[in-house]
Amino acid sequence: MSIYHDYFFDEAAYNIHDGGYVPLVRPDVPEMKLRVPPVMQPDRVDGQDVYYTITAQTGETQLLPGAKTKTWGYNTSLLGETAIFKNGQTIHLHLVNHLPEVTTFHWHGLDIPGPIEDGGCHAPVYPDGSRDVTFKINQLASTNWLHAHPCPETAAQVWHGLAAFAYVQDDHEAALPIPHTYGVDDIPLVLQDRHFHENNQWNYRADYDPDGIQGPTAMINGTINPYFDVTTQKLRLRLLDGANRREWRLHFSDDLPFTQIAGDKSLLPHPVKFDHIMLTCAERQEIIVDFGRYHAGDTVTLYSDDVALMTFRIHEFKPDNQVIPENLIAAIPDPEPAPDLPIKKVVMSGMDEAVMIDGKKFVMNRIDYKMPMNKCQIWDITNTNDEMGGMIHPFHMHGTGFKVISRNGQAPYPNELGLKDTVSVNPGEHVQIKVWFHVAGVFMYHCHILEHEDGGMMAQLQVVDPKDPDAKYHLIDHETQMMTFAKERNVPMDQLWLGGMESYKKMGMHM
Ligand SMILES: [Cu+2]
Q: Distance, CA 277 to ligand 1 centroid (Å)?
């Protein structure tokens, strides 16, 4: 198997070329054991029906020596517990908000109906309130995530810490000869970055950037300068770019090769070997790292660009000669496009406050497009950015997975051959994807640079179930949403500050 040494994306458009780029700096603090989020425990299990309570809460977390940092999390003070769902289960959620402001619980990567179960901006849970939702898991094994999505406050809430893993498992993946022991040889890693101000606190407004907030300090699973004790020859790392804006260009010391086995929403058809890999906002990549050439006492370092992110401390391990199967999954779903659905064009344009989709900013109660359920259509996503190299926009769709067909007419990258829900588009590039939904409702599609989506680089589609063509959905409007935030903060509307509002105002638009 050949080894890819390439990051694939356009080097001229990397975030390091942004005017506002904040370089990572390795923090000068002692190494700390990697936090591995605890597994979320159900309140009750009744056959295939599983019941959970998830509370969005404020807290304090020891991130740096000295003062604790004020943070938000799901059932924990920062980030959240890992939800592990099994295909075929019916999940019953009691969602509770103990934050001082409205939030939503968005299941990024789950194929569940919108807009309520999906948890986008139309499914608010108000402070001291709750919401109950039920959905069925009907998809391939994958690493997904839960994050807040209350427009235009998504970016700030995720920055405060509202992000957690949500796995889907199935029998096929469980039977593969790959690591499966949570926290031992199968580890989630959410990559984020933060700027610590006085007293170790975060200040979203002070650091706000309409092209995406960044901080100089890498944070992995809410750990600064982490190490992990390696006790098995092979380690499966489930990487998630949970940063608001930062891209991660990952590689290990000694250019240690690794094998990617899964992307956002499924296993890859075949494993792909790398020694460098790039992750853009919201993407997931599962890789298997083989430490067979190392011995107890050795260390291996993970870098992004040239900055060390974390250390793997090698301990004694048993030899592991299991071979990663050449065929990881029998077939990736790949329906034929419906002949009556012409190619749907989507244009992502602008930078800073000018970001738009199809020449428009997001309007919460406008449906931009309708498509029928269970029919496949080709979407053609263009990134028109061409000034100063432009920037890479990660295009995300709620409620489904898609198959990447081509980039500017060429083959997709070799690690894009599974199902995805987020695909990054280079400046001047158009990416074609096959889109189909097996659930109905209203769903958002947007750039996953969080300040871009809050700033209006987002649109909304309605997926129509032919058995229920007249289904009506209650869509909240921006005015109501703004009044909610103003009331919660006890400020008049003209003094309300939410990052995304700035982008509308600067473009002379009302939110
Ligand atoms: Cu963007």
A: 20
Return residues with CB closer than 5 A to ligand 1 (ion).
393, 447, 449, 452
Q: Decide: pTM greater than 0.85.
A: yes
245 Cα: distance to centroid of ligand 1 (angstroms): 9
106-108/419-420 β-pairing: unpaired
For 198, phi and psi rounded to 5 degrees? -50, 145
DSSP 8-state symbol, 502: H
Identify whether the C-beta of residue 78 lies closer than 8 Å to the C-beta of residue 121: no
% of the chain at pLDDT higher than 90: 96
pLDDT tens sequence across 102-148: 999 999 999 999 999 999 999 999 999 999 999 999 999 999 999 99
Q: What's the chain's average pLDDT?
A: 97
Residue with tokens 């809050």: 454
For ligand 1, the distance from its centroid to the CA atom of residue 391, given in whole angstroms, is: 8
Quote the CA–CA distance of 252 and 205 in Å, as a whole number.
34
Tell which residue, 137, 194, 141, 191, has the closest CA to residue 167.
Answer: 141
CA 215, CA 195: separation in Å to the nearest integer?
A: 4
CA 125 – ligand 1 centroid, Å: 27
Q: Using an 8 Å Cβ cutoff, are 504 and 352 in contact?
A: no
- Between the CA of 154 and the centroid of ligand 1 the distance, in Å, is 14
- 246 CA from centroid of ligand 1 (Å): 11
Residues whose CB is less than 8 angstroms from the CB of residue 370 and which lie 6 or more positions away in sequence, other chains included: 461, 462, 463, 464
Residues 438-496: pLDDT tens digits?
999 999 999 999 999 999 999 999 999 999 999 999 999 999 999 999 999 999 999 99
Share in percent of the chain as helix, strand, coil (round to 5) = 10, 40, 50
What is the CA(348)–ligand 1 centre distance, in A? 8
Task: Retrieve residue 438's tokens.
Answer: 């097996």
Contact of 20 with 209, CB cutoff 8 Å: yes
- Domains in the chain (CATH in brackets) are 32-175 (2.60.40.420), 181-314 (2.60.40.420), 344-475 (2.60.40.420)
Q: How far is the CA of 455 from the centre of ligand 1 (A)?
A: 9
Are the beta carbons of 438 and 380 closer than 8 angstroms? no
C-alpha of residue 211 to centroid of ligand 1, in Å: 7
Torsion of CA 378, 384, 385, 387, to 10 degrees: 160
Distance 209 CA to ligand 1 centre (A): 12
Q: How far, in Å, from the CA of 218 to the mean position of ligand 1?
A: 21
Give the max Cα distance, the chain. Answer: 65
